[in-house]
Design goal:
heterodimer, A: alpha/beta, Rossmann fold, Alpha-Beta Plaits, six-stranded mixed beta sheet, four-stranded antiparallel beta sheet, 10 helices, 28% strand, B: abc type-2 transporter like fold, four-stranded mixed beta sheet, 6% strand
Chain lengths: 307, 364
């Protein structure tokens, strides 16, 4: 076993494509045996970081270690140890489930039987269809197959780049259950997702945007750290409401969040007064309530602090 | 090794499951051989001929009979002098043979003195120059053959291809083209497909050197090309009646070298191209066009502008086609194609070296 308690270390990594800065001095650590989530919208630099860590790309600046190995110097060794599931479905659509599995096992010099125990909880769900071509599987099944293929050689660190994108809600939830099962087996997992609601399924998360890490913490801490009072508000004219609230000096920030708008109180904010004045402005059925922030609120607040 | 066999199996499955591509790969050479061998030929094998005879005689009758019996001529009958123009314009005849009215006397003069007036006139429809030229040649041979023997000082022998069949010329050219198409284009597209679909990323993040996966990819295409080589040689011999008098072993050895060369070209293209479309375009523009234009497959290298002749020297197909013509048609011994063979071997090694050097196991 390795000596370092860290599965992944990223120190000050930068990478740019031409003039676009994909990663801007990113630093983060993933502990052994934890599920670490990289959370951020498209263009946050998640995929670039993955490609650097799985040794497909070299960073312009900074250094990184995976399983105590340098991503540039020891890239061959790393390639044998990690499991990588790219964001795009990257199996052979013209090969069957079984053939894909066997091919990837051979690639790593193992057999499907050897590591069957590790993949069994996932692979069992698609095994009844093992003669079916991968191209004809549903999104959820493709994802399970891709995960099985990434796991077949018993990797020490698992890299999952947006594994739940394009997958239905039920399959997504199941998928996170599977990841927790793998964590029990001692795997370290780095997973990225654009869905903020999946943050709570990670042990720790890094919120990122435009190549920068905004904050790293456990999802609970992030929410607890949130300073300021957050409200949910709605009325009969939601669009007008948003405009009106944004023009108020006592409102620090206001944005749509499904059925409600979320409102971050600013200096001199008075809830009762706000409802009154909104009603006077012609809003009907104004409903205002204090709420506990979620990760999305944290993310938006961090973003507005940045700018 | 177990892994390598498994990778070859996987590639074979890709090819077998893409039945359309496989069909094209296997049928294309057959169709091309048949097309070029039969449909697209520059030789003229049917000239419609009518005759104008002012005064029939036994000699003329014999000449006309000879004409009618020739397989390259379709005899359209005897017509009147004032119909000549109408026959040629309507296309009922490509050529008119106009016998002189004192034909018998003139022939007699020729036979005794080997000199005299012309005994007949060929009026050709030269709107199709090929037919006119070839037709005049046929008619001259058939009708004046006897006289020429006594009068002509030059004797011509058409060696190796006495019937001047154009298929003889085309088959080596088609081989030069088909192997590039199958080995280079199909291979490069199939390698680039892995990049485009993202499977290359997964392959790279594994302990296997990606190069061995790529090499495994070449094996089934090599096998496919060997099948094509066999089918082309069989068709050429049994359908187009190309003698293949040369050493069959030499033909196969040179072809195998050329197959490896084409595969290396495909590998090289795949290291440059990022998408299948680009791979296809690069292959077609950089490989197919020069082969058709510069290899001597269609246009003789000697007829090219002086600037283009050295350019043709870097087209591998030129040397292959040259060697194949010598081997298949002339039945030349291996020693005579040594130069072509050595050039091909060096080109193969060079291309392979550049392709392997260019192959990266990281993304750009």
């Amino acid at each position: 076993m390795s000596t370092s308690p860290l599965a992944i270390e990223v120190n000050n990594i930068s990478k740019s494509y031409g003039t676009i800065m994909a990663l801007d001095h990113v630093t983060l650590n993933v502990k052994r045996g934890e599920i670490f989530g990289l959370i951020g919208p498209d263009g946050a630099g998640k995929t670039t970081l993955f490609k650097i860590l799985v040794t497909l790309l070299n960073a312009d600046e900074g250094d990184a270690r995976v399983d105590d190995l340098d991503v540039v110097k020891d890239y061959r060794e790393i390639r044998a140890r990690v499991g990588y599931m790219p964001g795009k479905f990257s199996l052979y659509p013209d090969l069957s489930i079984e053939e894909n599995m066997e091919f990837f096992a051979t690639l790593f010099g193992v057999t499907v039987e050897q590591n069957y125990d590790l993949v069994a909880p996932i692979y069992k769900q698609i095994e009844p269809f093992k003669k079916r071509r991968a191209g004809r599987l549903s999104g959820g099944m493709k994802q399970k197959l891709a995960l099985s293929c990434a796991l077949i050689h018993k990797p020490s660190v698992l890299f999952l780049d947006e594994p739940t994108t394009g997958v239905d809600a039920v399959s997504r939830s199941e998928f996170w259950d599977m990841l927790h099962g793998l964590k029990q087996q001692g795997l370290s997992i780095l997973v990225s997702t654009p869905y903020m609601d999946e943050a709570s399924r990670c042990d720790r998360i890094a919120l990122c945007n435009s190549g920068r890490v905004l904050d790293i913490d456990t999802p609970q801490h992030m929410v607890e750290k949130f300073d300021g009072s957050l409200y949910a508000i709605k009325s009969s004219h939601m669009f007008q409401l948003l405009k009106d609230l944004r023009s108020l000096k006592t409102v620090a920030n206001c944005y749509t969040a499904g059925e409600y708008h979320h409102l971050l109180a600013g200096d001199g904010f008075d809830a009762g007064q706000l409802v009154q004045s909104l009603t006077a402005q012609g809003h009907e059925d104004v409903e205002l309530k204090g709420i506990v922030p979620d990760i999305e609120d944290v993310f938006i607040k961090l973003l507005s602090n940045e700018s | 090794m177990r892994g390598f066999i498994k990778f070859v199996k996987k590639e074979t499955l890709h090819i077998l499951r893409d039945s359309r591509t496989m069909l094209i790969a296997l049928l294309m050479p057959v169709v091309q051989i048949l097309l070029f061998g039969f449909a697209i030929s520059t030789e003229v094998n049917n000239v419609n001929v009518a005759v104008v005879v002012p005064k029939w005689s036994e000699d003329i009758r014999q000449s006309v009979n000879k004409l009618a019996a020739n397989p390259y001529i379709t005899y359209k009958g005897a017509i009147a002098e004032h119909d000549i123009d109408r026959f040629l314009r309507s296309g009922q005849a490509d050529a008119i043979v106009f016998f002189a009215h004192d034909y018998d006397n003139i022939i007699q003069q020729w036979k005794t003195n080997a000199a005299g007036k012309p005994s007949m006139q060929f009026i050709m429809d030269a709107s199709n120059t090929n037919v006119a030229q070839a037709g005049a040649g046929y008619l001259g041979n058939i009708l004046a053959g006897e006289l020429q023997q006594s009068a002509n000082l030059v004797e011509t022998h058409m060696l190796f291809n006495p019937q001047m069949k154009s298929a003889f010329n085309f088959v080596p050219g088609i081989m030069g083209m088909v192997f590039i198409l199958i080995c280079a284009i199909l291979t490069s597209v199939s390698i680039v497909r892995e990049k485009e679909t993202g499977t290359m990323d997964v392959l790279l993040v594994s302990p296997v050197r990606p190069l061995s996966i790529i090499l495994a990819k070449l094996v089934p295409y090599f096998a496919l090309s060997c099948i094509n080589l066999a089918s082309i040689l069989l068709l050429a011999h049994y359908m187009l009646e190309i003698p293949l008098t040369g050493n069959l072993g030499s033909i196969i050895i040179v072809s195998l070298v050329y197959l490896v060369l084409s595969l290396s070209l495909g590998l090289l293209v795949s290291t440059v191209a990022k998408t299948q479309v680009v791979a296809l375009l690069v292959s077609a523009a950089v490989m197919l066009m020069p082969i058709v234009m510069l290899s001597g497959m269609m246009f003789p290298i000697e007829n090219m502008p002086a600037v283009l002749q050295p350019v043709s020297a870097i087209v591998p197909a030129r040397w292959y086609i040259e060697a194949m013509r010598k081997l298949m048609i002339q039945g030349a011994p291996f020693g005579l194609i040594m130069k072509d063979f050595i050039i091909l071997v060096f080109m193969t090694l060079g291309l392979l070296a550049i392709a392997l050097k260019n192959f990266k196991d990281k993304l750009q």
